[in-house]
Amino acid sequence: MKDLLRNALKLADVDYCEIRFEESELLSISYQGKSLDTITRDTPYGGNVRALHKGGWGFACFNNLDELESAVKSAVKQAKLAGGRLGLESKLAPAPVIEDEYVPEYTLDPRGVSLSEKLRIIGSYLDFILGYDKAITAAQIIYNERISTVYFANSEGTYIKQEKLDIGSNLAATARRGMTTVVKRIGRGSSIGFDCMLDAYDELGEACSLAIQLLDAPQVKAGVYPVVCDPALAGLFVHEAFGHLSEADNAYKNPQLAKTMTLGRVLGRDILAIYDTGEYPKNRGYLKYDDEGVPTRRAYLVKDGVLVGRLHSRETAGIMGEELTGNARALNYTFPPLVRMRNTCIAPGDATLEDMIKDIKLGLYAVGSGGGQTNGEMFNFMAGHGFMIRDGKLAELVKDVKLMGNVFTTLMNIDMIGNDLAARDGAGGCGKGGQMPLPTSGLCPSIRIQNVIAGGAK
Asked: For the domain 2-216, what is the CATH code?
């Protein structure tokens, strides 16, 4: 494969050219209601060529290695046409020339677990959910597994063969009483082993119990509160509200955003540190090399409350004169890489949950991530549920917890950071530029935020 890719690159008389080829094994299992719904297996196989000339890119896919040379010629032709119109200098940040073949150290290789055993394990969770209580009326389980071998070569001499695993799963229980329905779910995921799917009964039991309790829980009363976000909700916030603003392909194309995200801007108190990294194998955002063959590293975005960096591809780093971070990622071989997050994290502090709530007279402890949306600097997110904080103690359970505000005001209002790091994994992923769902994760602690707007009952 190495010689085949390198010989094809000799046909590319442009400033830069790269080839990425993938062989994958996909397995999807879903349970809906009370029975197995679908089992899907697939083996996608193909690659792409990306060429750069005078600032113009060309991109061509192929599904057979016999088509490789014609794909190189097509990408080169496109790049020359685009570069001829642009007439710019091609700018790519210098990257190390690497030769490597990498296989993760698996904790439990899913290829060593039979399909029948996977169905037995996952099916036992369905039985557990449905047998938990008569108030649990339905269950849904989604399990996705992808094992890929990715070959990468570029015209600078880099050749990398790396194996990647992505497992993502959601297990959900639905409780219903009359017209009231509550769904609670847990997520599991890993880049190194099927063992992430084992021993989920305790966590599932907590989710089922909570779903039943939420049937009778009141809505949170709308207002402005000091809010303690648990690690899952903190992870959703830092990914959606801040992480996307840190992707450099957004900043260099948008002068207003570039001004907003000027390095050196004070964003928070000196306790706040945010980084994005590919270094945590147990999480779904783990990478050794990105899809431009760049080694991944920890990229600090905020240190001591100050904006110190952003996430880059080789092109954005070259244009902006900043360091490479290893954040060029593609969903699969049918797409070119974009600047994407991996594991977006808030560095832990030293506070316990008790420390965070003890001086709050009336506040909210928001737990779990129920999704949400952002619009520039503004955000609104749903927590999975919450507890009111009264006189320094957790009080009644509440539901329909929606938090909203301005991301920069919110960052400035983070005044305590917990010591309880936890990952946020599941079957979903990040979407951008039509590429969805890309595996991402995060490792965050609880955070305390002053003056948060909570939507709810009047």
From this structure: 3.30.2290.10
